[in-house]
User: What shape does this take?
Amino acid sequence: MKGSSSDFIIIGGGIVGCAVARELSRYEAKTILLERESDVAMGISGRNSGVVHAGFYVEPGSLKAETNVLGHRMMPKICHDLGVPYREVGKIVVAKNEGEIKDLYKLKDNGDKNGVNELRIIDREEIKKIEPEVEGIKALYSPTSAILDPFLLNIALAENALQNGVRILLNTEVTDIKGKGPFIVKTNRGEFRSEFVINSAGLFSDKIAEMVGIDRYKICPCRGEYHILDKNRRHLIHGMVYPVPPREPGGLGIHLTPTTDDNIFIGPSAEYIEEREDTANTKEIMEKLYSEAKELLPKISKKDFIRSFAGIRPKLIKPDAKKSRDFVIEESIDNFINLIGIESPGLTSAPAIARKVVEIIKRKKRLKKNRKFNPKRKAPVRFSKLSDEEKSKLIQKNPNYGRIVCRCETVTRQEIIDALKNPLGARNIYGVRKRSKATCGRCQGGFCIPKIVEIMEEFYNPSIDDLTLKGNNSRLFIGRTKDLRKND
Amino acid sequence: MIERDVDIAIIGGGPAGLSAAIAAKKSGIDNILLIERNESLGGILNQCIHEGFGIEIFGEALTGPEYMQRFIDKVEQLRIPYMLNSTVLDINRKKHITVCSPEDLIKIKAKAIVLAMGCRERTRGQICIPGTRPSGIYTAGCAQNLINLKNYMVGKRVVILGSGDIGLIMARRFKLEGAEVLAVVEILPYSSGLPRNVVQCLEDYDIPLYLSHTVVDIRGIKRVEEVVIAEVDEKRRPIKGTEKRIECDTLLLSVGLIPENELSKMAGVSLDPITNGSIVNENLETNVEGIFACGNVLHVHDLVDHVTLEAELAGESAAAFVKGELRNESNIKVTAGKGIRYALPHLISGKRDVKFSLRVTYPDRDRKIVVRDGERILKKIPRVRINPSEMIQFNIEKEYLKGVNGLTIELE
Assistant: This one.
């Protein structure tokens, strides 16, 4: 890999990095994406609400507003082209008391200024029509707010970029950057030379910037915890249900978000922490999420929880800050583009951020259109979403579709094989989970993990060390039975 | 798409399904279909390679696979039709079943259905254990499968949360495989497993059991590095200052089993919020006519022998239903009173002998189980020892049930 030379190096395989990769693959250029983890979507991009924001929270005139509104407009087509589940379920922001009503008007005013369509304030009666189980006196209704599967969008962007010529290197961690256009990017897997570097390293984007001497940005990690509800509770809400956002610029308040797999997320909290990878759940917050969600939706119960998780916002503001801060989308030094502080609405904004990056590059470098660019990616089969006739046809063609591996999410053997055969080469339980949804259900893999391991064995005969939950050092097993007795 | 008509469809080829099938066949029904999602019959007993099964029925202690084989042999001998690798995707009130199999999608119209899907393990998410989500957290049954059937060792320094039977059995298995079991942690002041398992799996191997303790934190990013346990008060809340860190690479969860009734719900079967199984009458028939339930999908059992016997009744009832001989006259309600967590069946006719199954809410000694109709006491059953982990069963003959309006079963 030494001496490898390219036009663009993208650091970080989250949603932003992969969106940039795909955008650059529209042009004839040599682009490499470096990701330190064993798969894409391993950080912030896989740990959020999966919401496509309409754009009424963000400050008018900001980059956040510009990219959010544009991203929201671009997203349906992108998801359609890439075969990613996208649903315009709408959102209500609910005022629980008189005092909160003025906040609704403020949000609406904000949204109107940002050019968000169809926002309106609704009363209790209409809340009940849209969300019969939700309690509130007035609400802001945003019918165009949507949900998508953030894992699959991230993966699909990466796969489409790959298919259009981008090299994606997993398990490749940037350790240093030398030179200045061309840059020498040093990694655990050798050096890479590149004319441009795009820093989309998320929680570590400040560290990457420091490698080229830019030390004015400091990421302040702010954790958000979630609970996931069983899909048998999905009927409790129609779309997203949010509270009036808290005054301090931490998060949007604990909300209820349906997912494209028909679960409901409760969360996220907002709590500044020391360690940027500390995605632990905490007892206090777990309780708080439950009690706040119950205020919005009295019918939920702890019995419905199937899993909890946490994500971390890469904030550029300290806990005591009075105001939120805009995204950093800039060429900080020649040919080095920093994308820093891309927190919410980063998922929505990602495609628009990618466009802005290309605009910046185009000012410096002539880009020739890649005439072979194909914007479409064929999504793998989701057996559970098919009609009986379609299911039958598939089984006739391939009996592996007739064998259910994950009973909770109805995932077939062939879908597990497809997930393992993914073009990025990510092969572990999380990789299978993200792509096929096996293990995501109410038994959380209790029944299907042994079966998935069996398919892994058949498919690529991995060593014990290669059977992992989520990549390096997350081994599922410590060895074979009897291994521990060998020294007896 | 294949279409089939059957007299009795049995969903699940574990101990309950097999016994129900055999009993139905012996009752004179030939057009039976046993549907199993795994690649072999036998269900979860395939991975239970320890012994202790069959003491009540066969008078000998068999391993899980040995116990099962006796029933599988019988099924083969009686030529009862079964399908493997076949998962039921849907059932409706009309008893139409959609099965996904490697052959095709199969639409089955059944005259009667026996639900025998078993149960699943409660997970970390449902009990909200704080901490990180590294590799090395397994439910006990999942670990049992990986170790006993796939020969993968899931860890070498192990903490087990919950002292249910699978947790206890797995503690011993880990020890026998050369791993260290550092603690078995139980939130209740008593073990939730069978007393014989506490002795044979923990005490015999000097594995410490921490009663009134729970896991309050899990640490480690890639693989479990340590767990923190703490003592709990009488309301099961962790007591500050009692935390204890245990360095380990594995956390095993044995925190309860949940009857797997997703299909039952699709068919409109009503469930009991205590057992999480269906509400049944003395024929083990649910509120949906012609749909019966037995085994762990009805209520979680302690011994497979009890499952077998219960499933025989379900199979016989289903057969009688198909033959038009089953009368549903059960309109006398059975209520679990003081000290009783639940009692089955929920409804009886008063015209037949009935076998009751129940569990108590707390362990005790020298108590009497009382069956009464209002103030009238029908029966008193003395027990030297009662334990929530042990299912209690007894018969009440129809003579006692004459003129009964409603039954309450309670501890005196």
